[in-house]
């Protein structure tokens, strides 16, 4: 099969992306007498089958995680490879497999299906942020890439927002921003198709202290979408005044946990379709699911979970009278 050269790495047309699964390679998965590539992510076990043609070559590119390789003929038995970005070349000769070479690849230049992965340094960040501070990122042209990947770790809660635009100036958004909330030290990785021509990513420290561990990686290329669409979580900054507006256009219902340290003041839940004019919406506590609350709620030191059906495009959690003695933090779950 034909391939192409890219920074010293041949990427063949007959390759597969293996994402965090146990895989047993059967004969139909391999092209005899050719180079067969497998990009491995997560935990995998690969069993190599007998191949009639001794010129068959297998390249394993271990992007991350741990890949165990064994064969049902002589040569290789349960060998584990777990060094990131490692390339292992296996050949079959004299009825057994052997390791021809082990090396490293430049992940900044790996190509899947002819699309080079681009690691976005303008929207990625490792800079620690003060509470409430934001790394705004820059507008990047993504017209050559079908998918986006976001990876993050921080010891403080983060809010990551992806903006997609039709124009390079970032004036015309092509869809509502994608927002992701992450608890401190929570593992996070999502990927999804790109709709816009241009992208900008904002990262905000949603915690109460300056972060001491921060890494947000943004990349573009070909990657299977995650199942983040099954649910979405958001965290607010600590609030004593103002409001938190949530775009709920793609969701059906939600729960909002309001953690309050305040001793006075009130807040209310409101909805809107135009994002300008809001009116009160009905919510219920999970302990009193049949009792609608449509008026301002007095803040006390408490931890209550409210639920609501999504009937509007936006939901606002608004401070009606300024809180004193503490604040509230909202933990939102949409589905």
Structure characterization notes:
- This protein is mainly β and 335 residues long.
- The protein folds into three domains: 3-106, Jelly Rolls; 117-230, Jelly Rolls; 232-334, Jelly Rolls.
- The chain is built from no helices and 33 strands.
- It has strands at residues 3-6, 9-12, 15-19, 23-24, 35-41, 43-48, 57-62, 66-71, 79-81, 86-93, 96-104, 111-112, 115-116, 118-125, 134-135, 140-141, 147-154, 158-165, 178-182, 188-193, 198-205, 214-221, 232-235, 243-247, 253-260, 264-272, 279-280, 283-285, 288-293, 297-298, 302-309, 314-324, 328-334.
- The strands form eight sheets. The chain has a six-stranded antiparallel β-sheet, with no helix packed on it. It has a five-stranded mixed β-sheet with strand order 3-5-7-10-11, with no helix packed on it.
- A hairpin with a 2-residue loop joins β1 (3-6) and β2 (9-12).
- The protein is elongated.
- The two termini are 44 Å apart.
- The relative contact order is 0.12.
- Mean pLDDT is 79; it is low at 1-15.
Features:
3 domains, 335 residues, Jelly Rolls, five-stranded mixed sheet
Write down the CATH class of the largest domain: Mainly Beta
Architecture of the largest domain, according to CATH?
Sandwich
Enumerate the strands of the largest sheet in spatial order, edge to edge or round the barrel.
Answer: 23-33-25-31-28-29
Distance from N terminus to C terminus (CA atoms, Å) equals 44 Å
| Percentage of residues in strands | over 45%
Radius of gyration computed on alpha carbons: 25 Å
- CATH topology description of the largest domain: Jelly Rolls
